């Protein structure tokens, strides 16, 4: 390792994905970090970095010989007996001083990993939190995909499902046609005379009566591009979409498209209609309904802003799925719901895992940037931005073909860039290339830029300013 690489490791921020340990760390304590990373989102361990008591100073002090780390490596192999989900290497300074630091990469595991004290741990920030209560363990099992809330039963009479309009329509569409109760029993969608959560969500007309606060979709419209919406810019009271999962998906997509079609924004060529591919919205909303954790008492939330749509699905990504591998890996948290909704006429889902790939491909066709997928502590958030693939420089010059000047704020609205300083840097680069110049007499908060005139007075600004409806 070169000096810069060593300093980068020593200066690493300990957090959700990284931890630093001295070589004296006991295998039992080390096993807690191993368990926590594997049960959460994976991470990196560096063993051989000392930290002062006030955390103000760190030093590289590794093992004298690689063999001295055998006890630590055995701790990993006791938790990962098949060698899955972790890999390690030894790092040494170019000078050879300070010995060998053991660098371990731990991946998110499919099953629950326990420390040597018998407890599983989860990583939250820079902490390893023990999972000790049965309730917390149930949440971890669901997050791992070991259990699913869809197999729980609901406290409703059987005919709440067997005698519904949704069930009758479904039974007519499948071959051979059989009695609803016989069908549900054959598919293990009835347990002890009660319909399961999956059966209730799929085949009842109003599952929200049996599963309140965890089976609806809420739609919000915020007239802003701010990071968060507020009551002040809420366009109307939130819309609630209810009903069975099949009708709910199509109802939500229809309402979201209707709201989006009313949005206009000032683009490079004037007021433009906001456009998102319906396939993208359909697939992401379908994914949110089918793969959410129904054990979390919350609804799916869809927030429509002036420059983006956010779709938030309760529950973290299951099993080994991460935001980085979600387009490549396949896993279904709610197997019964996914399987049987696919038997409905014109099913909203085509195949497990293919929906998000379709969503990304549809964005590319419209030359829009890929959706952003990220996890919070209790949900998965997919952000679909109305942001062109064109570079900010291209968008600025295209805008100036139609308007006399452009401001920092307008560039941020066009490009989705959140930083004023970043936009300033773009302006300076374009000015250095003699493509734009500052508008004379405008400084401070009113500063604006126009196409480069080479010192020749530009009459176009005056012409456009003379128009009665000129847009600035």
From TrEMBL:
Report the GO molecular function annotations: DNA helicase activity; hydrolase activity
Where do the segments described as Disordered lie? 442-472
Name of the molecule in the record: ATP-dependent DNA helicase RecG
Question: Per the record's keyword annotation, is Lipid biosynthesis included, yes or no?
Answer: no
Annotated signal sequence is: none
Q: What is the lineage of its organism?
A: Bacteria, Bacillati, Actinomycetota, Actinomycetes, Pseudonocardiales
Keywords attached to this entry:
ATP-binding, Helicase, Hydrolase, Nucleotide-binding
Q: Matching Pfam families, A to Z?
A: HATPase_c_4, SLFN_AlbA_2
What residues does the Schlafen AlbA-2 domain cover? 15-130
Q: Which organism is it from?
A: Amycolatopsis magusensis
Enzyme Commission code: 3.6.4.12
Q: Record keywords: ATP-binding included?
A: yes
């Amino acid at each position: 390792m070169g000096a810069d690489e060593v300093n980068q490791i020593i200066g690493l921020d300990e957090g959700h994905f990284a931890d630093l340990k001295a070589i004296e760390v006991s295998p039992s304590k080390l096993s807690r970090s191993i368990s926590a990373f594997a049960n959460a989102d994976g991470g990196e361990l560096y063993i051989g970095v000392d930290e002062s008591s006030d955390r103000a100073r760190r030093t590289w002090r590794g093992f004298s010989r690689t063999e001295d780390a055998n006890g630590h490596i055995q701790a990993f192999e006791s938790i990962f007996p098949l060698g899955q989900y972790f890999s390690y290497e030894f790092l040494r300074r170019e000078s050879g001083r300070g010995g060998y630091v053991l660098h371990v990469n731990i991946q998110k595991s499919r099953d629950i990993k326990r420390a040597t004290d018998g407890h599983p741990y989860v990583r939250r920030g820079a902490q390893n939190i023990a999972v000790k209560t049965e309730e917390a363990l149930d949440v971890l099992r669901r997050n791992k995909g070991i259990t699913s809330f869809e197999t729980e039963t609901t406290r409703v009479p059987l005919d709440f499902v067997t005698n519904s309009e949704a069930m009758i329509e479904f039974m007519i569409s499948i071959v051979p046609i059989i009695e609803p109760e016989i069908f549900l029993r054959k598919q293990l969608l009835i347990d002890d005379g009660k319909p399961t959560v999956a059966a209730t969500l799929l085949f009842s007309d109003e599952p929200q009566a049996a599963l309140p606060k965890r089976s609806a979709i809420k739609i919000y419209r915020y007239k802003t591009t701010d990071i968060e919406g507020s009551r002040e810019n809420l366009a109307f009271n939130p819309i609630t979409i209810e009903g069975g999962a099949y009708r709910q998906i199509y109802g939500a997509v229809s309402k979201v498209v209707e709201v989006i079609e009313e949005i206009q924004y000032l683009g490079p060529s004037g007021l433009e209609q906001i456009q998102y591919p319906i396939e993208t919205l359909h697939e992401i909303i379908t994914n949110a309904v089918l793969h959410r954790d129904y054990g979390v008492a919350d609804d799916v939330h869809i927030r429509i802003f002036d420059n983006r749509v956010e779709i938030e699905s309760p529950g973290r990504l299951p099993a080994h799925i991460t935001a980085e591998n979600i387009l490549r890996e396949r896993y279904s948290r709610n197997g019964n719901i996914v399987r049987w909704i696919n038997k409905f006429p014109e099913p909203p889902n085509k195949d497990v895992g293919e929906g998000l790939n379709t969503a990304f491909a549809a964005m590319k066709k419209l030359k829009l940037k890929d959706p952003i997928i990220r996890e919070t502590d209790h949900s998965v958030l997919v952000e679909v931005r109305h942001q062109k693939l064109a570079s900010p420089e291209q968008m600025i010059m295209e805008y100036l073909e139609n308007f006399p000047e452009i401001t920092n704020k307008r560039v941020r609205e066009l490009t989705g860039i959140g930083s004023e300083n970043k936009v300033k840097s773009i302006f300076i680069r374009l000015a250095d290339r003699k493509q734009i110049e500052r508008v004379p007499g405008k400084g401070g908060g009113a500063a604006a830029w126009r196409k480069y005139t080479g010192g020749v007075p530009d009459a176009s600004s005056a012409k456009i300013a003379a128009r009665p409806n000129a847009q600035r």
